[in-house]
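Re: your question from the hallway

Yes, I did run it. Sequences:
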Amino acid sequence: MINTIYKKTKYLSLEFLLLLILGLLYMTMPNLLRNSWFSVVVWIREAIHSGDGAKLFLASASVNFLYALLSFMAYFWSLLFIKFTFSNKNESTQRWLISVTYLIIRIISWRLKFPIEPALDIITIFITIILTSYARMSLKNINAEVVITLQIFIALQWTNTMPALSSFYIGHSELPASIKIAGAYLDNTFTQNIISLAFMIPLLLSATMTSMRFRANNMMMTILEENVQKAKELKDAQTKIMENRVYKEVNAMAHDLKTPLVTIRGLNSMLMLSKDMNKLIPYAERIDNAVEKMSELISGFLYGTHRRRISIAELIDYVRSQVPIDSDNINFKFIADNEENLICGNQIRLSRAIINIIENAIIATNTQNERNITLKTTLLDDNIIISIEDNGKGIDDDHINNLFDIGYSGVGSTGLGLPFAKQIIEEHEGTISISSELGLGTKVEIALPTCKE
Amino acid sequence: MNKKSILKHIQAFILGVLLTSSILYFMRNDSGMIQNQTTYLSQPIASEKILITSAGQSTDTYIIKDVANDLLLENIFIPNAETSDLEGVNSMVIVIAHSYIGELLHDIDYEDEYLRVEQLIQDAEEINLPIIGVYIGGQMRNNKKTNQLIDLVFTSSNYNFIVGDSYAQNETTYDVPMVYVENLQQIKGPFSSLFR
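Structure:
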């Protein structure tokens, strides 16, 4: 609590210090720029004396730059002030507050004999609001704000020395008026108008284009942020589904573990009842087998790298025990031509991969009247081919390549089953492929190397 | 209607008002404006040597100096002339327009400048020196201090010379003859006619 207050106070004092320094700098600017103002007056006198329009241009450029500097400093101060003090307000409110603060500062500055152009200040702030709002700028991005507003301020200050705009009360402060009167005397009015336009229009266009660029960028950022948010939500959902799946697997394992336990319990009760000492050893051996089986199951489940020799018959039996084959009207066929062949692998994980594929097949066929799912194993060279074929609705060619992407599903499932299956098969140095015909069905083929001696 | 839409309407309204007022301003009818005089003098009212000085220390004074030099009118140019500078001159031209930076450059303030000009006029009147008040600033120089200086000079001068699309105090009339010139390009002829 104390730390938080300390940190807040620290930041507040830093922000206050920054505003104070900027404010003091702004207030001392007229004095700091005094020699520059004098130089401008001297250039105007020299232009009148020599009839040299270039001197007037020099005076115009200096005046416009210095005016832009002063007005931009006032705007920047307003910007920081609102950013620090009204950070909780929405962007459009902040923009209006900046404008009001800026105009108040300029009115105070005018009272303190700063060179001020009130009409131009109002126009400048108005255009600034339009372009920064169009760019969808937020006050978090001060750099971008500075890039746009600086261009606007410099561009519009060129209207000060544009005689054509004198009727609009623009350029009525002392130095711009002197420059325009001298320009009129030297018959330089047209040149002054053209030069001012030549500087103003490109800068204004540049500010507009920068604003458009930032708008596109900000829109892109918004879309990206939304996508990141969606991806995060999707990941959260996937995590929950995964947790659910793990829970289901634990349930399945608990069920598997119960079988040897029942065996052990039965044999144990028979041991207690048995009076024939000759049966003791066979019962003990069977208990030992059951414990061994349990141990295998637990290791297979706990350690992904745990491998053992599994016969095709054993694998298929385990899969059959996990799949609800007696449900509804599904016609399951398990055809194994090579039950004695061996695979070196993790029974639990391989079974889970095959079960995932079968579960997809069950979902894919649920719109068919007659639902056929066939699991067939064959030996091809040194590989055991396990194919799961269904007569479901099939998969479009456009989507078939995405089926192994995490989160992608053609049947409205979680989109995790097939990526998980692929990962397991590849861990066993096998391959998995899918072929499908729309309206006829899908065939998934798994190739696993046979166990070497 | 949501807040954004209201803001857009306000912005469009302000833009519309600005555009409309701009168009109206350009199309305004100038016939109602009072023009004092645009005639050349038939005979001079002052003679050389001319003291050209400033009331307000603006750069406009340098324009009149340049005009006088171009017309080969004998003159001495002292923007902050004092009583002693009146010696040996036959007329005085006071160019009016207040300049804050000009005053800073000459290290004086407005009150001192006003008193200097007031004193100079009094001294010139004592020796019957013709005084010509010149104002070339138009609307752009229109401010309180400039108007005070105009009142000071134009009420004491023998002749007034005004350039500009609109005179700062065009509703005011002074009991003094006045030359009005439309723009600065036409200044040399009428200015010359004051002396030749």
